[in-house]
Amino acid sequence: MLTMPVPDESAIRRRAGIAAALRRIVPGEGVIEAPVEMRAFETDGLTAYRQMPLVVVLPETVAQVSAILRYAYENAIKVVPRGAGTSLSGGALPLADGILLGMARFNRVLEIDYANRCAVVQPGVTNLAITRAVEHKGFYYAPDPSSQIACTIGGNVAENSGGVHCLKYGLTANNVLGIEMVLVTGEVIRLGGKHLDSEGYDLLGVMTGSEGLLGVVTEVTVRILQKPETARAVLVGFPTSEDAGRCVADVISAGIIPGGMEMMDRPAIHAAEDFVHAGYPLDVEALLIVELDGPQAEVDHLIGRVSGIARANNSSTLRISTSEEERMLFWAGRKAAFPAVGRISPDYLCMDGTIPRKRLPEVLQGMAELSRIHRLRVANVFHAGDGNLHPLILFDANDADELDRAEKFGADILRLCVKVGGVLTGEHGVGIEKRDLMPEMFSEQDLAQQMRVKCAFDDKGLLNPGKVFPTLHRCAELGRMHVKGGALPFPEIPRF
Amino acid sequence: MSAVLKPATEAELRGMIAAAQAPLEIIGSGARRHIGHPVQAAAVLDMSGFTGVIAYEPEELILDVHAGTRLSEIESMLGRRGQQLAFEPPDFSRLLGAAQSGSIGGLVASNLSGPRRIKAGAVRDHILGVHGVTGAGNVFKAGARVVKNVTGYDMPKLLTGSWGTLAALTSVILKVLPAPETEETVALSGLDDAQAVEAMSLAMQSACEVSAAACIPGEAVYLRLEGIAPSVAYRRDRLGKALRRPIEVMAAKSSAAKWQAIRDGAMFAENPGHPLWRVSVAPSDAPGMIRMLKDKLDIRYLLDWAGGLVWLEVPPSHDASAALVRSAFTAGHATLIRAPETTRAAIDVFQPQAPALAALTGRVKDAFDPRRILNPGRMYRGL
User: Fold this and answer.
1) For residues A55 and A32, is the Cβ–Cβ distance under 8 A?
2) Quick one: chain A helix, strand, coil %, rounded to 5?
3) Quick one: how many helices (H) and strands (E) in chain A?
4) A209 reaches B (C-beta below 8 A)
5) What is the tally of helices (H) and strands (E) in chain B?
6) Under DSSP, is residue A128 helix (H, G, I), strand (E, B) or coil?
7) Of the candidates B200, B131, B201, which has an alpha carbon nearest to the alpha carbon of residue B168?
8) What whole-number distance in Å separates Cα of residue A28 and Cα of residue A36?
9) Residues in CB range of B296: below 8 A, 6 or more apart
């Protein structure tokens, strides 16, 4: 099990006073301190970890968020920001000595601006609600994490969420134009807006995917896109994962960027087929769904080319969707892969490494070996276009030894990803889950540089501590690694 | 003339930065050296020793390359495999009187993108990794050779567009994408600015996947379609119907020439003495801004990014009409892309920031370069 920083007992002792202070900022029912009511916030999507917060506060206005953070900053109290709490990496896991700052009440769509193709929303609006608000005009918001019905756009910004369409349409970072945010000091700043790019440093880029460690987002401006005219999918079975991997590489080499390109391995195929009966072939080692979207003429042309590439790569079965119903059926199994695996195992851990695609066969082989070593089953779904693997490790959380083995198995998989030139996380974030693996990918120096950026935003280390970074450093200590003497050098050089 | 330091290895670079007692001006090839405040440095840090491709893997969509490598070399190499940098890097050599289009490191440091910015994103949307040495003399890396990665802060984005004020980059990893098989441009003439922006907005709101939308006043509105031939032809017909105006179609060759000229601001190369701005605003704000400026100044301009990027050439003056230009819009930013050195020393070249944001920007600078060694003052005074 991962451990969290030792709670600050003095904050816990001051709990009643802190709650009273928060109540002065957010009157009414916006402050929750009764354990039974706080229970709803004790975990996120990484349910193996639970922790009751010190107190929960649910502000409704930017002024309240600002006042809460200023109070926390002045009194050195930790703060954990939270959207819908769907993080799969424990990013929203509460701290025993920290205020849980829930943004769920920021749930309004503020403006839809079709002329400039953007929408301005509050951070508690769900990902899917943005699409719902604009789809009557044929628009949608592109990033579609699988939790899109529940996850909030503020959480998406914090995690830089992806989805099955991000090879072609990008992650959250590529679809957010601007934010309003509150710094830990309570200062409110705007980054970006309806215009493109930044006048200065790309702090919007840094904020996106910063996992609640740098500030609290209070407004988001997103790009909305016209829905593709049509979409069709090809469902291809392969006798080996090598064949499937080569097919993916050949599609991309042919200059085709599909709207989605998903792969499943044999255990995932069987689990999904047993669950939703999508008509998946069961005698194949790898199944590929390639979806082409765009103008009718283009989709019809490319579907032929992709089918040709699949056949040239030894496909054993190949079906092309001829109707919207059939396309949805192809996807039904893939989209139900997680619950399908949930049916065949009491619990599962969903991993999230990215690898160079060409290393897929050896990574799958390595995973099979690890599966034997750790005596746990694994099923794989894979965003094949961008190399983002989601191994699902099957285990029983009621068996402490199995949980322990599952976590070790997961860590070994991520080490393998890094070893072949990949990364620890493609879209779920580091959170607490991959925190202690960061040194596998980064040197001490690399991590120190990231922590210096953290210090620029949060000099007291109050925002979401214990997440992302395996060790906590005082900012002054990081500064001493380079500042000598403290004085600005070379006073002889003229300045503007 | 200041001294020139030309490191050949990362270790040498680290040593030079750590030992520096006075500011260094970082130069790749010098192509964009005259954008920003003039840097008052004791020495030039010449990064042109860091050249060459580390890895180019077309089927993985990644390019890992030393920062001093010439952009022109990279573009030819990608072109041979039918790929490109999708953000359409501009070539400002004619505009700024440089010898060539510059290095890839300089391009990343400037985050300057071309007409396809509105569809494909900017440099910052294609950067996957960086290696470099901070102003404090710390060697660091961030990102990796994969196209999807959220491990740790997105340092590559932070370095993109930081104009060499945070770190000297030794190599960069970029996402590369297939180049379109063909292109066509649909042109509409006889529109005023407001009608032009409206037409571009209509085109961008359609499902026609317009990859660039620009307006040259008095000439035409241009809308580019790219992709496979049957798709381009199909979308051209759909776009024509959606616009409900007579259109002219430019075939691939003349389309490519037109967009190259727009990308590079070619029409502004003829007046080298005139200050030139690039103003980023919400597209619908552009016509009003231009109307206001036209009343007060003799301007030449071009609208790119469907109206979201206004190229603005103003008459020569000591302050490049900065206050007036910046009073003409409420949200967005104006960057002075070309002006004499005295002007660039006198006014804010980059859009001034609100106090809390400026202070945060200063703290981010401190996180990399607390001694203010690298390109000090180039973006903001004291930074």
Assistant:
1) yes
2) 40, 20, 40
3) 18, 18
4) yes
5) 13, 18
6) helix
7) B131
8) 18
9) B324
Q: Is A122 on the interface with B (CB under 8 A)?
A: no
Task: Decide: helix, strand or coil at residue B303.
Answer: strand
Residues in chain B: 383
**Cα distance from N-terminal residue to C-terminal residue, chain A:** 55
> At residue B276, does pLDDT exceed 60?
yes
Rounded CA gap, A247 and A249, in Å? Answer: 5
Q: What pLDDT score does B1 carry?
A: 54
For residue A302, give the nearest of A262, A261, A255, A264 by alpha carbon: A255
Q: Smallest Cβ distance to B154: which of A139, A209, A297?
A: A209
| Token pair recorded at residue B59 | 């089927």
Closest CA to B177 of A253, A332, A16: A253
- CA distance linking residue A215 with residue A182, whole number of Å: 6
Ranges in chain A, pLDDT < 50: 482-496
Q: What is the pLDDT of residue A138?
A: 97
| CA A90 remoteness from chain centre | 11
Percent of chain B with pLDDT over 90: 99
B207, A174: Cβ pair inside 8 Å? no
Q: Is the whole-model pTM more than 0.90?
A: yes
- At B283-324, the pLDDT tens digits run 999 999 999 999 999 999 999 999 999 999 999 999 999 999
Backbone angles phi, psi at A31, to 5 degrees: -120, 125
Q: Return phi, psi of residue B84, to 5°.
A: -160, 170
Provide CB contacts within 8 A for B28, sequence distance 6+: B47, B48, B67, B68, B102, B103, B104, B105, B106, B109
- The verdict on A173 touching B (C-beta cutoff 8 Å) is yes
Question: B12 CB contacts (<8 Å, ≥6 apart)?
Answer: none
pLDDT on residue A492: 41
Asked if A319 has any chain B CB less than 8 Å from its own CB, the reply is no
Cα(A306)–Cα(A233) distance, rounded to whole angstroms? 10
User: Distance between CA atoms of A438 and A449, rounded to whole angstroms?
Assistant: 13
**Is A207 in contact with A181 (CB distance < 8 Å)?**
yes
Mapped onto helix, strand or coil, the DSSP state of residue B178 is strand
**Of B279, B258, B283, which is closest to residue B204 (Cα–Cα)?**
B283
Nearest alpha carbon to residue A171 among B133, B128, B162: B128
Considering only alpha carbons, which residue of chain A is nearest residue B333?
Answer: A199
Instruction: Give, rounded to a whole angstrom, the gap between the first and last alpha carbons of chain B.
Output: 23
Do residues A481 and A444 touch, judged by C-beta distance below 8 A? no
For residue A468, is it left (φ>0), alpha (ψ between -120 and 50) or beta? left
DSSP assignment, residue A135? G
Label residue A104 exposed, middle or buried (CB < 10 Å: 0-12, 13-18, 19+).
Answer: middle
pLDDT at A143: 96
* DSSP per-residue letters across A162-222: --TTHHHH--GGGTEEEEEEE-TTS-EEEEE-SSSS-SSS-HHHHHTT-TTSS-EEEEEEE
Q: Report the sign of the C-alpha dihedral through residues B156, B160, B163, B168, in that order.
A: positive
* Cβ count near A312 (within 10 Å): 11
A445 and B139 in contact by Cβ < 8 A? yes
Structure token pair of residue A2:
């991962």
8 A C-beta contact, residue A386 and residue A166: yes
- ipTM of the shown complex: 0.98
